[in-house]
Amino acid sequence: MCGITGYIGYRKAYPIVINGLKRLEYRGYDSAGIMMYDGKNIHLSKTKGKVVDLEKIIEKTPLKKEGNIGIGHTRWATHGVPNDVNSHPHVSQSGNLIIVHNGIIENYDTLKKELIKRGYTFKSDTDTEVLINLIEEVKKQENCKLGKAVQLALTNVIGAYAIAVFDKTKPNEIIVARLGSPIAIGVGKENSEFFIASDASPFVEYTKNVIYLDDEELAIIKLGKGISVRKITDDRLVDTNIEELKMSLDQIEKGGYDHFMLKEIHEQPKAIIDTYRGRMLADEGIIKMAGVDDNIEKFLNANRIIIVACGTSWHAGLVAEYLFEDLARIPVEVEYASEFRYRNPIISEKDIVIAISQSGETADTLAAIKLAKSRGAFVFGVCNVVGSSIARETDAGAYTHAGPEIGVASTKAFTTQITVLSLIALKLGKENGSLSKSAFHSYLQTMQLIPSKIEKLLQLDTKIKEIAAVYKDSRNCLYLGRGFNFPVALEGALKLKEISYVHAEGYPAAEMKHGPIALIDHNMPIYVIATKKGHYEKVVSNIQEIKARSGKIIAIVTEGDTLVKQIADHVIEIPETEEAFTPLLTTIPLQLLSYYIALMLGKNVDQPRNLAKAVTVE
Ligand code: AGP
Predict the structure, then answer these.
(1) Whose CA is nearest to atom 7 of ligand 1?
(2) In this structure, what is the dihedral angle of CA atoms 467, 317, 396, 303, given to the nearest 10 degrees?
């Protein structure tokens, strides 16, 4: 899940390509590299490390910045350790063809052996170098143009790819192609310039005209001539569909915050309002969501709802299980997409599958969708990225309007996913009579108050910083919750793990007695969610069991709580609300706690090690 970018046009390509890589760095940051073409020569610069490291190297040789054509890559290593040689771009044996690639060529070893028999040698351990030499070999054998050679070569490839290929002997074009990994093409006026990128963020300030390539499509981008898109499988010409880009520059900048994660935590009140705006009319007692309204019969007559997702989105799916079963009395199963896709699951056309994904590019979730569709299920997507693969693959859906989420640790996407899923559950509950009109009305009124309650919670910054300072050096901790807040405990643990590298586990509070309680001693912080209406007495007993073993308790309680305050070492109070909506509040202090602990441990909060924002390979 790397980031690729490119430019061909009349402007200086270097600033566009290098800034594009910085904007895509959330996709992978093991190494970075660019190729610039100055009208005569190609200049290749690549290094292990971040884009800033690459910039430093290039600054020493300004010549390497010259030219109006460039392609670039920021890497999340799959084949070959992060080092200079394995960094992209990769060059073909003749030195003429250059490629950047996001994805995995699964049959690269077989192809490599065949190419070695034909006299090819390889400098790196990557699958990508194999692909560019395969393209070179096909071009030679078929004596064809680059576009054709790329198409033919790709018909021999098994795996996932988004690629950009440049031929220095034919410098007025770039070939891009995709299967499984995303590519967006920015189109300048009168075909005077073109921008290529894994998502549209690298060119928001240059053009609002964007083409999202579909799977198995290849585009030949010719300067001054335009773009022709073909199906890789049968070379059939495809109509190019230019869409309007709805992203703005300030959305993808830090806006004065130290980190994207902190900015995105603080954006949650607005993100939730943007997500229910025009969908929830609380005073009229109406919920309208086109994707659900147009398919209401399918939802109301469904045997069950199967939710597929990964990571934080899977946790949002778990919250949705409680929401749909409690508010709409519809049976729900929540599946890890990576297990679901290979488990040969029993699915019928009477099932609704809801796929949840912030990026809309997660390979396992995409594959789970394709499987469910192939077995006749109706697939509904909940995505945050407009035009993403999952948004285009699903039968219908609803966007979370969280705005671009750049911090690798997902925050506002989680709360806006829960918001969308709450609206769907409420709507279905009303439609199928599980919810009375008055209960429905009161839930809408309550939901409308959530953003201001989050605003209030965000003012607890200082208090949360103090608690973080106490527990930052703990190497292990537990998160406990019951009911709607069990998934929030899992999410809290994931947030801490992924940005501070502290080992943390989330559990249903009652499950603690069946093993994890053995871990507890005076060094173990336990974060417990003990909201007033969520099996409160039971959770209080769990807290006393922990206290009896000298565990350190940090409790998330409802404002005005007095009992837990007497037992816990630290309490964080959240405003009162319906239990079904408490996950939207209880998760906020856990996000801030993990943020400040990671900060105090000197970790790279926005780009944690070994992770990437969109997992486009399985
Ligand atoms: C969460 O903070 C992580 N970035 C990760 O678990 C993420 O939720 C998972 O990869 C799913 O991503 P998606 O929502 O884009 O599909």
Answers:
(1) 311
(2) -160
For the Cβ of 616 lying below 6 angstroms from any atom of ligand 1, the answer is no
Distance 313 CA to ligand 1 centre (A): 6
Instruction: Say what the pLDDT of residue 246 is.
Output: 80
Helices 412-431 and 268-276 pack at an angle, to 10 degrees, of 30
Q: With contact defined as beta carbons under 8 Å apart, do 360 and 337 qualify?
A: no
The conformation of residue 251, written as its DSSP 8-state character, comes to: G
Indicate if the alpha-carbon torsion angle 307, 263, 25, 401 is positive or negative: positive
Residue 409 CB–ligand 1 contact under 6 Å? yes
pLDDT tens digits along 590-613:
999 999 999 999 999 999 999 989
What is the reported pLDDT for 81? 86
Torsion of CA 554, 589, 497, 531, to 10 degrees: 60
15, 37, 63, 196, 296 from 45: Cα distances, Å: 14, 12, 11, 19, 54
For residue 518, the one-letter residue type is A
Segments in the chain below pLDDT 50: none
Between CA 298 and CA 295 the distance in angstroms is 5
Please identify which residue in the block is written with the tokens 């086109």: 290
CB 445 within 8 A of CB 297: no
504 lines ligand 1 (CB under 6 A): no
CB 507 within 8 A of CB 469: no
What is the sign of the dihedral through the CA atoms of 101, 104, 393 and 151?
positive
**SS3 label, residue 434:** coil
Structure tokens at 243: 């869409």
- Annotation marks residue 613 as catalytic: yes
What per-residue confidence (pLDDT) applies to 455? 98
- Phi then psi for residue 371, to 5 deg, are -65, -50
Tokens 């005076």 locate to: 522
**Strand spans (E) along 329-482:** 332-336, 351-357, 378-383, 396-399, 476-481
Q: What is the pLDDT of residue 534?
A: 85
Cα 284 to chain centroid, rounded: 35
What is the spatial distance between Cα 77 and Cα 103, in angstroms, rounded to a whole number?
10
Centre of ligand 1 from the C-alpha of residue 569, in Å: 32
For residue 618, what are its two tokens?
């399985």
Three-class secondary structure assignment of 551-571: CEEEEEEECCCCHHHHHCCEE
Among 310, 488, 618, the mutation site with the greatest number of ligand 1 atoms within 8 A of its Cβ is: 310
Q: What is the DSSP letter of 439?
A: H
pTM (predicted TM-score): 0.88
- Average pLDDT across the chain, whole number: 95
Ligand 1: does its nearest atom lie under 6 Å from the Cβ of 312?
yes
Q: What is the pLDDT of residues 61-71, one digit of tens each?
A: 988 899 999 99
For residue 357 and ligand 1, the question of a CB distance below 6 A is answered with yes
Q: Which helix (H) or strand (E) holds 177?
A: strand 173-179
User: Tokens 């920021």 sit at which residue?
Assistant: 74
